[in-house]
Specification:
single chain; 369 residues; alpha+beta; six-stranded mixed β-sheet; 12 strands; 39% helix
Length: 369
């Protein structure tokens, strides 16, 4: 019996060591560009699941008081702490945010959902959320409006509804058309926008721009970006959704093949886009920097790490829990971010609950030090 127990524990620990190696590869996968090694982004996406397996091993050795194995697990988890905190931070809320803080909101609005005009009797829910947020600066991705359709949200509807923001900038990405409307990204600000500059992307439907904002005499560089989407079709998303509900080997093979085929080029495009944004941040001459947007990538990803650089992640610094920002088709990840320079302190970064878009809004309060 004792021999069997030793063999079992030895075999289990061997499996544990393999799991630890995979965990370390996953936790540090964001250091390697997808253009150099296409496998690492997929390992990075799996980080929460790999972490869970290792946490179960840790609990097993703890229950049976296997101190050597427990120590190995503990050291491995400590080595991965930065990635763990990026994914699952835990902070208590600050009850009284200091005076002088500004509230920043970033939101992929998915074309303002159904894009119905905003009226008192029939408000556009996404637009109403932005109004009710009382944010000082709002960064929007997938901003869409229509000039020639009275039944859909028009630029004049937006201007009227968001009249509390005297300063705004819209960057058009697609060519306008009666059916697709006017599509792009925007920023709305209660503070003067001094200048704007487009950040060139090699992309048809995504982009980024820089706005220089004067906040009480402080020059702030604000970057709003929407990195490359994964380009999964509705059919592929539905197949993935069905797989999450009913696993089978045939479904796994079919879904994995088509998904990997789409994700590989998207990872590479996001890498080059992130490098361009990071270059703009490095060349910036203003003392304060804020980066908002839909990165379409997880907290353990090359894109997020490259853009973040020396900046801080407001959610990792002040949020609590996984902070999932995408809410469709079982793709439950945090992919929307508010980053800021070290001379800015964040408070109570949170994820909103409105489901009218496929993304949740993200907001935080920022204090300029």
């Amino acid at each position: 019996m004792i021999t069997f127990r030793k063999i079992f524990n030895s075999s289990l620990f061997t499996i544990n060591v393999v799991a630890i190696i995979i965990l370390l590869l996953s936790a540090f996968s964001d250091r390697i560009s997808p253009e150099k090694a296409s496998l690492f982004p997929f390992i990075g996406m799996a980080f929460p699941f790999i972490l869970l397996i290792n946490a179960l091993f840790f609990m097993w050795w703890l229950v049976f008081l296997k101190w050597k194995q427990l120590l190995v697990c503990f050291v491995a988890l400590i080595c991965c702490w930065s990635s763990i905190n990026a994914y699952f931070p835990f902070h208590t809320r600050t009850e009284n945010v200091p005076d002088g803080c500004i509230k920043v909101l970033t939101y992929n609005v998915m074309g303002f959902h159904h894009s119905n005009p905003h009226t008192r009797k029939n408000p556009n829910q996404v637009l109403q959320y932005i109004i009710n947020s009382h944010a000082d600066i709002v960064c929007l991705q997938e901003h869409r409006s229509y000039n020639d359709n009275k039944n859909l949200l028009s630029p004049s509807d937006l201007k009227k509804a968001l009249s509390m923001y005297p300063y705004s900038h819209f960057m058009q990405i697609e060519t306008a058309s009666p059916t697709l409307g006017i599509y792009g990204m925007s920023v709305y600000s209660k503070y003067p926008i001094v200048s704007t500059k487009k950040i060139p992307f090699d992309s048809t439907y995504n982009g980024a721009f820089l706005s220089e904002i004067d906040i009480h005499g402080k020059r702030v560089t604000l970057i709003n970006c929407h990195l490359e989407t994964n380009n999964l079709s509705n059919e592929e998303r539905q197949q993935y959704n069905e797989l999450m509900s009913d696993f089978s080997s045939s479904k796994i093979d079919r879904v994995a093949g088509s998904t990997v085929k789409k994700l590989k080029p998207a990872f590479k495009l996001r890498a080059s886009q992130a490098e361009k944004v990071a270059e703009v941040i490095r060349e910036n001459s203003n003392p304060y920097v804020i980066v908002c947007g839909d990165f379409n990538d997880t907290p353990v990803s090359y894109a997020r790490r490259t853009i973040q650089g020396d900046l801080k992640d407001s959610y990792a610094e002040t949020g609590s829990g996984p902070g999932i920002t995408y809410n469709r088709n079982h793709f439950y990840f945090r992919i929307d971010y508010i980053l800021h320079s070290k001379n800015i302190r964040a408070y109570n970064c949170s994820v909103g609950e409105l489901k009218d878009s496929d993304h949740y809004p993200v907001y935080t309060w920022l204090e300029f030090l």
